[in-house]
Amino acid sequence: MPLPKVECSFDIPKPFRWNDSFKVFYHGLDAEHKVLFDGVFNVNEKRGDKGTFDLAAKKFKEHFVHEEADIKKGVDSGTISQTYLTAHAAAHNKFLEVFGSFKLPVGDDEVDYSMKWLVNHIKAMDFEYKEKIPQ
């Protein structure tokens, strides 16, 4: 599968670590985002390690389930549209499809895609739900 192009106008942190510029201000989601950054960082460091790759894939899946459930709370309260949730879930599913297609050892293009996707997704899409999810 050819990698989709990720349009990312945001800086990619070097080293690839979560920082405060990625805060969505929901403790659980911020903590999970840190784990996702760590996962991509570790896949980059251990490109041929199946356990590292599988753990990252698992953490992405778990986070997407949690995040979509939280966004649904916003839909139910009227602060977030169903259209936004549907688009958000579709973006998650597409990422999982692409990430799941990677062959080991993971190459530069796959690492670059994953880094750009995560940064862009948080800053361009996740930031839209700031202050809209009921606590």
From TrEMBL:
List the InterPro entries: Haemerythrin (IPR002063), Hemerythrin (IPR050669), Hemerythrin-like_sf (IPR035938)
| Entries under SUPFAM superfamilies matching the protein | Hemerythrin-like
Alphabetical keyword list: Iron, Metal-binding
Gene Ontology terms, MF aspect: iron ion binding
Q: Which domain of life is it from?
A: Eukaryota
Q: Does the keyword Metal-binding apply?
A: yes
Q: Gene3D superfamilies of this UniProt entry?
A: Hemerythrin-like
Protein family membership: Belongs to the hemerythrin family.
What name does this protein carry?
Answer: Hemerythrin
